[in-house]
Design goal:
- There is one protein chain.
- Strands 6-7-8-3-9-10 form a 6-stranded mixed β-sheet, with helices on both faces. Strands 2-1-4-5 form a 4-stranded antiparallel β-sheet, covered by helices on one side.
- It starts with a strand and ends in a 5-residue tail after the last strand.
- A hairpin with a 2-residue loop joins strand 4 and strand 5.
- Helix 3 packs across helix 4, helix 4 packs across helix 5 and helix 5 packs parallel to helix 6.
- It is of the alpha/beta class.
- The protein has a single domain, classed as Rossmann fold (3-Layer(aba) Sandwich).
- Helix content is 33%, strand content 27%.
- One of its GO terms (molecular function) is ATP binding.
- This is ATP-binding cassette domain-containing protein.
- Pfam families: ABC_tran (PF00005).
- Keywords: ATP-binding, Nucleotide-binding.
């Protein structure tokens, strides 16, 4: 039996005092590619934020990459985040640094010391997203799709057990969305577990996979109809 990489039991998610999602019972196992869908405002982002400890889990049980979300201490949050790769809709790249320096910055911040090892790691993750030749460029010199590839490379730096992608194609045109999706599919085939929030239903049709839906304050698995 593979051990779940993410497990929530009777969990409720709050933003301040407001209940956003209740009675969440889900499991994600190693190597899965899982979508999180739902209309804007149904709690997808709050769900993601709880997983990387931006929002505390106040009710129920939650375990993610061997961390207990309910009893997570402030000092443990950086260690949790090292085991997660987070990809945001708006890239969040540092505009005053080159691609390479963006990635080196993250490695330094997460405790890497050996410059040769760091350079090797940067080169390896850029190769994975087909951006090896663009390391010297600044973010503004890249297209949206290229910036998102760099953001995915950044998420891979510490070889995360789980990648949380929050609307990674939200700011991209359909063709670029497919290119970014292909990168994520390849990474998943290499064994990385991915949870991707999206409202792009075209991607779900093109790349069907396990799907969770946020609706009416709940999160549940959608059973795919076989065509």
């Amino acid at each position: 039996m593979s051990k779940p990489i993410l497990q929530l039991k009777d969990a409720s998610i709050f933003q301040g005092e407001s209940l956003i999602l209740k009675n969440i019972n889900i499991e994600i196992n190693k190597g899965e590619f899982v979508y999180l869908i739902g209309k804007t405002g149904t709690g997808k982002s709050s769900f993601m934020k709880t997983l990387y400890a931006d929002l505390p889990l106040k009710e129920g049980e939650g375990h993610i990459v061997d961390f207990d979300l309910k009893n997570l201490k402030e000092k443990d949050i950086p260690y949790l985040r090292r085991k997660l790769g987070v990809v945001f809709q708006d890239f969040k790249l540092l505009t005053d640094r080159t691609v390479n320096d963006n990635l080196l910055f993250v490695l330094k911040a997460t405790g890497w010391k050996d410059r040769t090892e760091m350079d090797k790691r940067v080169e390896a993750v850029l190769a994975k997203v087909d951006m090896k030749t663009k390391g010297f460029k600044f973010p503004h010199e890249l297209s949206g799709g290229e910036q998102q590839r760099v953001a995915i490379a950044r998420a891979l730096l510490n070889d995360p057990e789980l990648i949380l992608a929050d609307e990674p194609t939200g700011n991209l045109d359909p063709q670029t969305s497919i290119e970014v999706m292909e990168v994520l599919q390849d990474i998943n085939k290499n064994g990385n577990t991915i949870l991707m929030a999206t409202h792009d239903y075209a991607l779900l049709l093109k790349y069907p996979s396990k799907t969770l839906k946020c609706d009416e304050n709940e999160v549940y698995e959608v059973v795919q109809r076989k065509s």
